[in-house]
Design a protein that fits this description.
Order of helices and strands of chain B: EEEEEEEEEEE
Oligomer: heterodimer
Strand content of chain A: over 45%
Distance between the termini of chain B: 37 Å
Helix content of chain B: under 10%
Shape of chain A: globular
Shape of chain B: globular
Number of strands of chain A: 11
Number of helices of chain A: 0
Helix content of chain A: under 10%
Largest sheet of chain A: 6 strands, mixed
Distance between the termini of chain A: 40 Å
Number of helices of chain B: 0
Order of helices and strands of chain A: EEEEEEEEEEE
Chain lengths: ~110, ~120
């Protein structure tokens, strides 16, 4: 099955700085990579995703890059704001299809005002 | 967008009792739903795949007799934690996806906090 590793586990940045979270995956057949933001006690919320036919996708302050050869993908948040503070999870399709995913271990992001 | 609803959002039960958590897809039919478990400060771990009209498929290490899954209709899956123990206390969350053609987005329920005392 898919194995997803995520780094760093914690990340503190000053407000306005950029934050980068990196993930690697093991299954070269994986073709869909979502990123989720989870606030304490709440469901994960999809913030951006990328499919394997593109190398980069951007949505305002959030971007994701994908390197299929190296099997890694990264989340980039620019101009961070205190409300960006949360736990972020990367994910990749688990064995058996697109409907279920294997999550990374999570990154707790703290944006310091 | 599609909505997946989960109930209850939190529950406290005594050791040895059973507790049922429901997951509903509100505006689409889901032949397959998924159950995850999340311990504090940890990631979400896939527990099982709930299949409408057939047996659930459990991930390695998940006890099927302890975590009973029933998917009796196209919009409802239930997870029953049987003979609950304090170590079963966790955040349980379900997910489902609309049929292909409505996108590949995965929708999560609100989650259910289980505390076993």
């Amino acid at each position: 099955g898919e194995n997803v590793e995520q780094h760093p586990s914690t990340l503190s940045v000053q407000e306005g700085d950029s934050a980068v979270i990196k993930c690697t995956y093991s299954d070269s057949a994986s073709n869909y990579f979502p990123w989720y933001k989870q606030e304490l006690g709440k469901r994960p919320q999809l913030i951006i995703d990328i499919r394997s036919n593109v190398g980069e996708k951007k949505d305002q302050r959030i971007a994701v890059t994908l390197n299929k050869t190296a099997k890694h993908f990264s989340l980039h948040i620019t101009e961070t704001q205190p409300e960006d503070s949360a736990v972020y999870f990367c994910a990749a399709p688990a064995a058996g299809g697109y409907q279920k995913v294997t999550f990374g271990t999570g990154t707790k992001l703290q944006v310091i005002p | 967008g599609a909505v997946v609803s989960q109930h209850p959002s939190w529950v406290i039960c005594k050791s040895g009792t059973s507790v049922k958590i429901e997951c509903r897809s509100l505006d689409f039919q889901a032949t397959t739903m998924f159950w995850y478990r999340q311990f504090p400060k940890q990631s979400l771990m896939l527990m099982a795949t709930s299949n409408e009209g057939s047996k659930a498929t459990y991930e390695q290490g998940v006890e099927k007799d302890k975590f009973l899954i029933n998917h009796a209709s196209l919009t409802l899956s239930t997870l029953t934690v049987t003979s609950a123990h304090p170590e079963d206390s966790s955040f349980y969350i379900c997910s489902a996806s609309p049929p292909r053609g409505r996108g590949n987005t995965i929708y999560f329920g609100e989650g259910s906090w289980l505390t076993v005392v």
